[in-house]
Amino acid sequence: MSATTSTPSLAARLGIDRAVAIAFGCIILLLLGGALYSREFLSPNYLLQQLQIAAFLGVIASGAMMVILLGHIDLSVPWVVTLGAMMATALPGWLPHPWGDLLAIPFGILCGALIGVANGLGVAFLRLPSMIFTLGMNAVVQGFMVLHTGGFAPLDHATDAMHYLAVARTIPGIPNALFVWALCGIVVVLILTRTAFGRAVYAIGNRESAAYLSGINTNAVLIGCFALCGAFAAFAGVLLAGYSTKAYQGMGDPYLLPAIAAVVLGGTNILGGRGNYAGTIAGVILITLLQSILSVMQMPEAGRQIIYGTVIVSMLLLYGRGAKARS
Amino acid sequence: MKDWRYWLSHNAGTLTALALFAVMFTIYIANHSVGLNPAVATTAANKAVLLALVAMAQTLPVLTRGLDLVVGSVGTGLLGCIVVLLAGSLAGFINGAVVVWGRLQPIITTLATGAIYYGIALFIRPAPGGDVQADIADLVTGQVFGTIPAALFLLLAVVLLIWVPYRRSVLGRAAYAVGSNEQAAYMSGVPVRNAKLLAYTLSGLIAAIGGLVLTFNTYSGEASSAIGGTYTLNSIASVVIGGTSLFGGWGSAIGSIFGAFVLRTIEDLLFVFDLPPLWQPLFQGVVLLTAVSLGAIRVFRIRNRLELFT
Q: Which of residues 172-231 of B touch A (CB under 8 A)?
């Protein structure tokens, strides 16, 4: 599947394999199909707006991809998103004036990273299946947040900085959120392709015992990836708080399945070890467009869920299949 | 019994869960203001049986090393018992088919099909409501002979009619073989595909029975992702407490039943000891996380570090 020739072609160097090509092809098909319904779907204004919404999912998917490349999964995303938003919006109320606003965003991200480290510790040292442990962690974080807000929606509002990052348009026409996503994407790509840490991520995803025997501190890499995933999820929560001007309970719930689906639709192997960021970009845009077009067509929630699930299963049947049980 | 020692070690998980439940239920009854009477027992049983059914449903795919994230969304919202059971089995069968012939990962399959089933449930019943025939509902949630909760009989019936024959059948044993080592099972001529298909189908069927019990408890049907979500996590935790290995090939649905009883009793204990309501979600989360962390005991038994990575 991957390029094994000695001189990789241009497409292979950019990380465009079959899965990525199919995903981008589906994006174009979706846009064309949408255009048959209404011309508005091809207007630059609409597309930029979709990219702005895609940016939130993109930031979450960047972190989810790191974990999926390891062959693990992080199901604590929904409440870590909420945690990031709530902690960041609450901090200005706890600290004296200039500090609260300055530290709000780093504090939110730090909280997310801490939960990520806890996830990583459980997966690395207790050797529990990540799916189970992070699902439990999700329940614990939810408990903390219910306690924090007293069961009500908190009144803390997003700071100006969050608002600026999420909705403002410094360069006319192009939303800032898009630049934020681009920055996160560059960080992930640099980590994955230019550092020993990134190599170790792919190695562990392929076979952890082999990585361990070749001297990689696999536990440290696991914890690092989960911490990154938590940090990205919390950062997305901060952005979402800026977008909707406040933090609220359950704000992360609609992002779990789309984030995982975006990564997997982009050709990243759910068992780990294979995948690149170009695919994740394609997956994120594909999912966002799909959701948007279904809601513009005024599909009821039920129909949206059905189509959504069907599309994911059928695209995976195209290229996400595992090996046969034959040796 | 000649090989009682073997039997004991084989059922250690189930027996631990049973003992844990006995202790906790005693504490609960001792601290309850009314004490043990049929009404208290019935309320406890109704809630526990529901989770126990979902946990049993979860056990089957786990045995084959899969995981089912849909169990929650099947069943709620549909009415008409036979239709529900058929629909549940069909949903389970589709999951199995996608996993077997599509060769997709069970997690991602069930995440996606979960969205589909939730959509269908929402389609049928967008708002909570619907009528249940009150006599059937009362029959299931009431008491037999005035003392024993009827829900326990339902659970017993499910065990005797579904689990025991399954465990003794060729395909049931095949499920354990597939969970231990799929390659080896395939090489020894075990019907791998049919074992998986049957496990997922039965899982759907039992989850649908669980959905029916939920409907009888609340007297109406509702399509809610919140219901699905809680039951998914709780059922996995029950399976772990009941001694089933999440790595497949080891465990039993009986253990999961007691695992579910233990979890339910924890919630009842919170009620008896009068914990502030705001603390309850956190406390439940911590209990769940601790419960699933029990699976880490395996790590301390391993001598060769390389075995950690399998």
A: 182-183, 186-187, 192
Convert the pLDDT of each residue in A121-179 to its tens digit.
999 988 888 877 888 898 899 889 888 887 665 666 778 888 888 888 877 778 889 99
What distance in Å separates residue A14's CA from the closest CA in chain B? Answer: 27
H or E segment and range at residue B173: helix B170-180
Rounded to whole angstroms, the maximal C-alpha distance in chain B is 59
Residue of A127, A264, A325 lying closest to B299 (CB–CB): A127
The helix (run of H) or strand (run of E) holding residue A72 is none
- Other CB atoms within a 10 A radius of the CB of residue A249 amount to 17
> How confident is the model over B41-71, as pLDDT tens digits?
666 666 666 677 777 666 666 655 444 444 4
Instruction: Render the burial of A90-114: b for 16+ CB within 10 Å, e for the rest.
Output: bbbeeeeeeebeebbbebbbbbbbb
Q: Please indicate whether, in this complex, the C-beta atoms of A128 and B296 are within 8 angstroms of each other.
A: yes
Query: Distance between CA B112 and CA A172 in Å, rounded?
Result: 39
> DSSP 3-state assignment of A175?
coil
In this structure, are residues A97 and A157 in contact, taking their beta carbons and an 8 Å threshold?
no
A308 in Cβ contact with A291 (< 8 Å): yes
Q: Which of residues 232-251 of B touch A (CB under 8 A)?
A: 232-233, 236-237, 240, 246-247
Tell me the DSSP string of A191-227. HHHHSHHHHHHHHHHH-HHHHHHTT--HHHHHHHHHH
What residues does B149 pair with on adjacent strands? B143
The residue to which tokens 């924090």 are assigned: A148
Q: What does the block give as tokens for A51?
A: 């990219």
The two tokens of residue A160 are 């100006």
B139: which 2 tokens? 């029959």
Distances (CA, A) of B194 to A42, B96, B200: 48, 9, 10
The answer to whether B105 faces chain A, any CB pair under 8 Å, is yes
What is the identity of the amino acid at B249? G
Closest by CA position to B237, among listed B20, B7, B11: B20
Burial class of residue B273 in the structure, from the number of CB atoms within 10 Å of its CB (0-12 exposed, 13-18 middle, 19+ buried) = exposed
Closest listed residue to residue B66, CA positions, set B205, B231, B244: B244
Residue of A nearest to B310 (CA): A209
- The answer to whether residues B201 and B71 touch, using CB atoms and an 8 Å cutoff, is no
Interface predicted TM-score (ipTM): 0.76
Q: How far is CA A1 from CA A16, A273, B38, B102, in A?
A: 11, 13, 64, 18
Query: By CA distance, what is B291's nearest residue in A?
Result: A136
